[in-house]
């Protein structure tokens, strides 16, 4: 089994967190987006979108981190995908994460990291739209997490992974999460209680800190 990605990518991180949590063995190939590795004919044959992550598991070639994680959870019988009604709630939050929750943060990444690195000015309108989207959906998550330790049931699941991924570049992109104390407390709980989540946070920083120094992006 081989994962193609970049430890600094929030989408790759979702799969790495699942793999570490499961304890699965895998090979890893770095696809450096800043080097154009995602645009080679070989990589485009795996994912015509030119995006990471991609998992190759025998004859199975999968892109989209959520699909990869569902494959891993089923293959290894992992506790990351609950059974019964909680299974559908897990999928509900995973779909919500992709459709709504993760819409704003990539725009902040573009404005505050990519454009700065390219020497382009920030677009205040794009930043305001991203913040408005984040606040709108964080209000939903904030209420949901009021009396809960994890997003679904009483343990870490793929829903937590898909939602918490937006914290990956918190110190570089500044989403307005501090206004949502239950969301902040939940994310801290993941770091404190889920070794795989803390490990991927450390790997993100090891990758991003020198990269930012080189590219000049982030603040
Ligand atoms: N919906 C995809 C998103 C993947 C994605 O946005 N990957 C980014 C890195 S985090 C990427 O490969 N960007 C390169 C590009 O857009 O050209 C998933 O969940 O896997």
Automatic annotation (TrEMBL):
Residues 1-80 form the GST N-terminal domain. It comes from the Bacteria. InterPro entries: Glutathione-S-Trfase_C-like (IPR010987), Glutathione-S-Trfase_C_sf (IPR036282), Glutathione_S-Trfase (IPR040079), Glutathione_S-Trfase_N (IPR004045), GST_C (IPR004046), Thioredoxin-like_sf (IPR036249). The keyword Transferase applies. GO terms for molecular function: transferase activity. Residues 83-211 form the GST C-terminal domain. Keywords: Transferase. Belongs to the GST superfamily. This is Glutathione S-transferase family protein.
